[in-house]
Amino acid sequence: MAEVEETLKRIQSQKGVQGVIVVNSEGIPIKSMVDNSTTVQYAGLMHSFIMKAKSTVRDIDPQNDLTFLRICSKKNEIMIAPDKDYFLIVIQNLTE
Amino acid sequence: MSSSAHAGKSKRHSVVVSVTSKPEFNMKRTSISGTSSQRQISHASGFHPSRIGSLSRRSILITSDGKTMDKGSLIGSKHTIQVFDEQGKDVTPRPLYRPEPSASLHRQSKILSTQDFSGATGSDFLSSLSMHQTSGVNASLVGPFSRTYGSSSISKSTTSTTESIADEIVEPGSRRDTAISLSDVLVRREEIKEQLTKEDIDKRVDIYLTETETIWLLDMPTVMVSIESEDAEKVKERNKDYIELCKNRVGNDCFVERMMQTLNGAPKNKEVQCDKILMEDKGIMATSWDLYDSFNALETTLAPSVTERSSRPTSLSSSKSNVTKDRERTMSITSTDRESITSSSIIDLESVILARIHEEEEDHSEAILKSEKFQQDLFFMERVLMENVFQPKLAAYRQLPVLIEPVLTSDAGKEEAVTEEAEEEEEEEEGEEEEEEQKEIVVGSSILLDLSEAPEEILPPSLERLWSYTCELTNGHNVSCMAWNKLNPDLLAVGYGQFGFQEQKKGLACCWSLKNPMWPERIYQCDHGVTALDFSLANPNLLAVGMYSGTIAIYNVQTHNTTALLDSSESFDKHIGPVWQLKWIEQDRGTTGDDKGEILISISGDGRITKWLIRKGLGCTDLMKLKRTASERKKLTGEKEKKSEALISRQPPGMCFDFDPRNTNIYLAGTEEGHIHKCSCSYNEQFLETYQAHKGPVYKIAWNPFSTDMFLSCSADWSIILWRQDSLRPILTFSSTTNVVHDIMWSPKSAFVFAAVNEGRVEIWDLSVSTLDPLIVTFANPGVKFTTVLFARNTDCILIGDSDGIVSVYELRNMTASDSNKVDALHDIIGSALAS
């Protein structure tokens, strides 16, 4: 548990990281390092997106599965590590 | 008794009728049966064997004359009729028809007075008994017959027995019979009714519907008679009669047309009402992975779900597991929770269960955060972040072309596009306008080659700092040694430990990965300062660490375990002085009996060069004990140490060593005295040669990897000396500063290039360029001393460790690519140097 905390802290203090959100399988945020409204927004929007991406990957080959998802946009980058029970979302902004 | 009056008149068979006292009147029944209007009534008559019987019957008949038959009185002597043929065969006809008793009773009363019978039938009656069976002859028809004839028979009774044709008598019998049969039937029916009890009604009765066999009611096969036979005439007459009958049929009063109708029951409407049938629409999308999951889930669900249920309240756990599995498919999550409640008080339980659900969710989230998968995901996420942060640097490390944003397209575009780009770039990179304009002009001339060649400037070789491996743990520690992993060139081991005796503190050994420059992959805390490190070649996961206390520990970097695999602190022959250098060497050990294997060799401050073997712990044998050699002037090598010095004679501390890359039997060792000894593994008593030139401790020796004749040595006397193996005098001396040179290393790519680190700066020497000055000099930050240097094998980078615990990665830029095999050139240079 301590390791998890440490790693989370390190990630949070990385250059350009705007926020770290951990969402459980139902779309409820478990842990968040950004304000509430942003958290809720991200959690809700990402959920459907991840489902779609996962469904796409598995439709092509049911034995395959989604391991990592990155959305690079102009202003920042959203990195998502999906899992059966949770999603880990990190938002990073490098162009500052 | 045989009946006499038949043969001539009747066309029928002559039959002997014998009467037996049986209750059944088989023939009677046949005669009674049917409603056919044919008058050819066949009657079977039974003759009484005795007059008495007939009398009795007659008497019965008289009494019952004009009245309907009394059932009870008739049940007297019942007799069966048996008809016998001339031959004596029993041709008693069997009854086909069992008449309706009620109908027969009815008709008896009606037809009594009205019937008018033709004489023909009477004659028939009198004449014979017929075997013809007609269907549908009513008992009622028979009845009046009997009466009339009964009366006639009464009158004639005394005359002849033959004339007392018992067929009339038979009639009452028949009536009797029908009555009997009626009663019988009636009785039977009632009996049947009584048998049905309540149980039977409730009982489940299986009704089997099958098709019965065909019941023949009438079968009159055609009979073919030859014309020449005896009966031919009879048959012809009969046929004629029949045809006449058919003609007479129409309009004849004897024949009545009758209509039949089946009665239909009156229909009745009944209304039924049921509860409203609830309809629910449900949609689901069956994707191919959904199907795959369902098939796989069927195999694996049962076992784990059962174990879950046994431990916790069943409803919750099952709903939870369903939720996690089906979250992608089903919508209603909360409803399943509620449905699974099975207890009585719903409201209270709902609240309790909802509270429990919340708790469960909290537990669940805690579980998620603690799970290993989460840890792993965080690990990867961190690496991904690092990649983002360090992307250009890492790309430079890998010698990939670095992407510059905005991308200056090198396509020969139109001038408009070019000017647009120019505008964009002017906004962003204002300082480089002139250059870009020049470039654009070049582009405008639409020759790609120009573009690539135009900005070509000859830049001097330089070191560019890419990034540094550092973290808060390593702050303040002195980097004492660095080593690459033999298998994975991106994995770096760094040892942190102070050099000096007084500054000793706890040391650290870290494994850094290229993928995460901000946090080491492995951290090994050591009790003493780490002074030497090396990765094994045969087992790339083994890391040998030598410490200031003389202890050697071996770690396995594959696991996260931070305790040492092996430790030499308990062995007998462990080092007493600090281990200054460690190396894993591949060696033939034919003499010692072992096969070719890898051994660990260390040199330490107690003057011993020892060979370590991994057999049940670390065992060691000494390769060499360094001996003090006095200066050349006065003493000979080896012996007379004791004379000159009154100090405690001890072995000189060994500082460094290096094995000959060609011949791993021979190695060079540098001592604190400043001597370099060439030794052999086969001799552990004597040195092969001694090179003496340094005036201070020799900190590092390095064989040239390309030209194995040459080696470099650096020492605390501010100088670096290039030696040749066969010459006891130095070839070249490089001294550029007044600082202690801590470390040197040949470049793995060029025979001429080497790097040297002295306290304040890093020097890159290129012998092909100049033997007097270093090619590149980079200064350290004030207060920080550079202590170690390491070349990267797969790229043009150099790693420099300093006294603050930072390992910086520098890229060597614009080095002229020199041909590494120009050993001759090196010799030429040396030759020229020597000459000069």
TrEMBL record, chain A:
Query: Is the keyword Transport in the record?
Result: yes
- Read off the InterPro entries from this record: DYNLRB1/2 (IPR016561), Roadblock/LAMTOR2_dom (IPR004942)
Q: Which GO terms describe its cellular component?
A: cytoplasm; cytoplasmic dynein complex; microtubule
Q: Where in the cell is it found?
A: Cytoplasm, Cytoskeleton
Which SUPFAM superfamilies does the annotation name? Roadblock/LC7 domain
| GO terms for biological process, alphabetical | microtubule-based movement
Role: Acts as one of several non-catalytic accessory components of the cytoplasmic dynein 1 complex that are thought to be involved in linking dynein to cargos and to adapter proteins that regulate dynein function. Cytoplasmic dynein 1 acts as a motor for the intracellular retrograde motility of vesicles and organelles along microtubules.
Q: Which family does it belong to?
A: Belongs to the GAMAD family.
Q: What is this protein called?
A: Dynein light chain roadblock
Q: Which organism is it from?
A: Chelydra serpentina (Snapping turtle)
From TrEMBL, chain B:
- Record-annotated membrane-spanning stretches: none
Taken from the UniProt entry, a GO cellular component term is: axonemal dynein complex
- Where is composition skewed (Polar residues) in this entry? 29-43
InterPro entries noted in UniProt = Dynein_IC, WD40/YVTN_repeat-like_dom_sf, WD40_repeat_dom_sf, WD40_rpt
In terms of PROSITE patterns, this protein maps to: WD_REPEATS_2
* Compartments, record wording: Cytoplasm, Cytoskeleton, Flagellum axoneme; Dynein axonemal particle
From the UniProt record, list the WD repeat ranges: 691-733, 734-768
Q: Where is this region: Disordered?
A: 29-50, 304-337, 411-439
Keyword field contains Cytoplasm:
yes
SUPFAM superfamilies to which the protein is assigned, alphabetical: WD40 repeat-like
- Recall the GO molecular function terms of this protein's record: dynein heavy chain binding; dynein light chain binding
* Composition skew (Acidic residues), residue ranges: 418-438
The protein's UniProt keywords, in alphabetical order, are: Cell projection, Cilium, Cytoplasm, Cytoskeleton, Flagellum, Repeat, WD repeat
Its protein name is: Dynein axonemal intermediate chain 4
- A biological process from GO: cilium movement
Record's compositionally biased regions (Basic and acidic residues):
323-337
Renumbered to this chain, the Low complexity biased-composition regions fall at 312-321
